[in-house]
Amino acid sequence: MRRPGWPSRFWVAFAVTIVKPISWLLVKKDWRRGDLLPRTGGIIMVTNHLSWLDPLLIAHFLYNNGRWPVILAKSGLFSVPVIGHMVRALRAIPVYRGSDNAARSLEAARRGLAAGACVMFYPEGTCTRDPELWPMEGKTGAARLALETGAPVIPVAHWGAQEILPYGSRRPRPLPRKTFRVLAGPPVDLSRYEGRPLRADVLREATADIMAAITAQLAELRGEKPPETPFKRPSDK
């Protein structure tokens, strides 16, 4: 029987056969507090974005902790021959940026949560442009989804993928072998927004709370103090 929110056994086996060996080959693991990820029920997993490589490595972390990542991916991937079929089969959700179809992504995520999926969000919408690689301001999609559905928001910070493949680079630097650090946190407390109309200001405040939770996890991983004000996210990237 298929687990809620998971692809078919064939596609799970296919993805695991590819992802796990690559992940183990590329990085050493420092994974912490995976026990904070609920094993059942719909959850919204939010994380920072440092490299084109980190979705693969975070997917390994989630899988090893009993969750299948339903990733929001650029809609263009779904029209690529072969690749498009694969990402659909793996339960990814297309993101229609800069179009009237953007709401379709959230609707698909709502259905996934109702089916018990772990929906994986990058609230920044792109790899961070902060010079010191701290999380930027976030988009409001994850907050809206959480306040509409009541699904728990689990912050997960990571560090290390950027040392292998920095943002914008096409040349990986696998040697010497790097350490990929991950730290999960408790659900973000959004209780003060319950019952409030989902106006723009409410969504921005809830999003700021979500980004603050991710940043706090990352600060612990890095052993450094984050900036007091998040870097302003590019509006069109």
Automatic annotation (TrEMBL):
Lineage of producing organism: Bacteria, Bacillati, Actinomycetota, Actinomycetes, Streptosporangiales
A matching Pfam family: Acyltransferase
Naturally occurring in which organism (per UniProt): Streptosporangium becharense
GO molecular function: 1-acylglycerol-3-phosphate O-acyltransferase activity
Keywords: Acyltransferase, Membrane, Transferase, Transmembrane, Transmembrane helix
Location of the Phospholipid/glycerol acyltransferase domain: 43-161
Chain segments annotated as transmembrane: 6-27
One GO term (biological process): phosphatidic acid biosynthetic process
Cellular component per GO, a single term: plasma membrane
Protein name: 1-acyl-sn-glycerol-3-phosphate acyltransferase
SMART domains linked: PlsC
CDD domains: LPLAT_AGPAT-like
